[in-house]
TrEMBL record:
Gene3D superfamilies membership: DsbB-like
Family statement drawn from the similarity comment of this UniProt entry: Belongs to the DsbB family. BdbC subfamily.
Compartment(s) of residence: Membrane
Keywords assigned by UniProt, alphabetized: Chaperone, Disulfide bond, Electron transport, Membrane, Oxidoreductase, Redox-active center, Transmembrane, Transmembrane helix, Transport
Keyword Transport tagged: yes
InterPro entries: DiS_bond_form_DsbB/BdbC, Disulphide_bond_form_BdbC, DsbB-like_sf
One Pfam family it belongs to: DsbB
Protein name, UniProt field: Disulfide oxidoreductase
Organism placement in taxonomy: Bacteria, Pseudomonadati, Pseudomonadota, Betaproteobacteria, Burkholderiales
Transmembrane segments: 20-41, 53-71, 78-103, 129-148
Keyword field contains Oxidoreductase: yes
UniProt source species: Methylibium petroleiphilum (strain ATCC BAA-1232 / LMG 22953 / PM1)
GO CC, one annotated term: membrane
Primary site of residence: membrane
């Protein structure tokens, strides 16, 4: 017992957990990506292609799940979000390969509506939206891996 302040000394010094920073960063990436997708679709009026819809289906829940996990510092939220982020990497990676011409034309999944292989929206010169989506999903996976390793018991 620390007699000067009336506090008890802990046998093991405690260190403040910084794991929530990684989880909050993953949530920030998901939140920015969600708002960017909504801005492109609702404000700019661009209809998403089929693969873009799949990426939205995987990204939008990440903004909710990771936000709840970050505020509650809940490790389970990161565990639940991880498969969604991996699925997003797979779909965005396939979409990126499709745009780059690495996927044969007969494997293009688009039906009616905008073409998945013909992206009209580019930003910062020549960066296409599926590339940004791939970067966002990969960043979320990396941040969740760091968080899950640091909070492993």
């Amino acid at each position: 017992m620390n007699t000067a302040r009336g506090e008890h000394d802990s046998p093991v010094p405690t260190r403040p957990s910084t794991g929530w920073v990684w989880l909050s960063a993953a949530w920030a990436v998901a939140l920015v990506s969600t708002f960017a997708a909504l801005f492109i679709g609702e404000v700019m009026g661009m209809t998403p292609c089929q693969l873009c819809w799949y990426q939205r289906i995987l990204m939008f829940p990440l903004a909710v799940i990771l936000g709840m996990a970050a505020f509650g510092n809940d490790r389970r939220g990161a565990v639940y979000a991880f498969p969604l982020a991996l699925g997003g990497v797979a779909v965005a990676g396939y979409h990126t390969a499709l745009i780059a011409g690495w996927v044969p034309q007969w494997r293009i999944p688009c039906g009616a509506g905008p073409s998945c292989s013909d992206q009209k929206l580019v930003i910062l010169g020549d960066i296409q939206i599926p590339w940004l989506s791939l970067i966002a999903f990969a960043a979320i996976v990396a941040l969740l891996l760091v968080y899950l390793r640091r909070t492993r018991s």
